[in-house]
Amino acid sequence: MSPMTAWRICEEELKKLPNNNQFTFNYCNRFSSIFVFDGKYFNVADQEYDWVLLWGIDYFRHDIPVFSIAPSENYHAWAKYFSYFRIINHYPQLVVCDDNLNLKMAARSCFPAVKIQTCFNHFKENIRRDLKVRSDNTYREFMRKIEAVFDAKYNDGALNKKLYSIYQNYHQDPVCLSILTNIEKYRVELIGYRHIHQAPVTTNLIEGMNAHLEARLISLRSFQSVNHAKLWFNGYILKRRYTKFTDCRGKFSYLNGKTGVEMTKKERIDLPLLF
């Protein structure tokens, strides 16, 4: 069987599946208050630049209610994506994401009461890159002290004490002072988790999803068109939602043996058999 014949067979089967976002509207409404969002870029053969999958995962239930694809992660793309949450009548209390300004602005516009939690890992990596600590040891000791600020969830007293200690030692260095000033600028987004039970401070959950997806995309290499990409992602996400969890650990171990869509489906409703 030729690759083209195989794709045509797959395409016909994928077309039989419901639209994921419409499926969520019809069958699901029990989402948690915390979502982790990110964009994942992919190649389209007939496009000059890569396109991006915009998606998010329910932190506690590991379901993926809506997705969209767009030519970039601009404000309008994220605003359109978040508008689907209004359609399914869900408004997250906490959004966890990397330092994507467009994502944050769109989230605040669509969910006025939302809190933003900037991922600790991404925030630290941005500082490492600015200080060039991997190739230059000038600021490595300073970076180690900064990393210690983000090694746990501290109250204001403990956080201020750590930052002031660093300030006392490095305030005469304009580079270090700039980093400390930026931390203060981001403070609200770095403590968004507060007063929200078991709230995460990293995007590790969706980064793991991105890694799983990347393995599939590598084998595909490229989509022939945007429509083909949307069709494939729709099937991929529905399949993920219908697949039982097997290796969840710690506070997520209760999910093993269950599916994401099973955790969020409306009460007293039967899910259709899609796979």
UniProtKB/TrEMBL annotation:
Keywords per UniProt: DNA recombination, DNA-binding, Transposable element, Transposition
Family, per entry: Belongs to the transposase mutator family.
Name of the protein in its database record: Mutator family transposase
Biological processes per GO annotation: DNA transposition
GO molecular function, one term: DNA binding
A Pfam family matched in the record: Transposase_mut
InterPro entries listed in its UniProt record: Transposase_mutator
Superkingdom, taxonomy of origin: Bacteria
Keyword DNA-binding: yes
UniProt KW Protein biosynthesis keyword: no
Function: Required for the transposition of the insertion element.
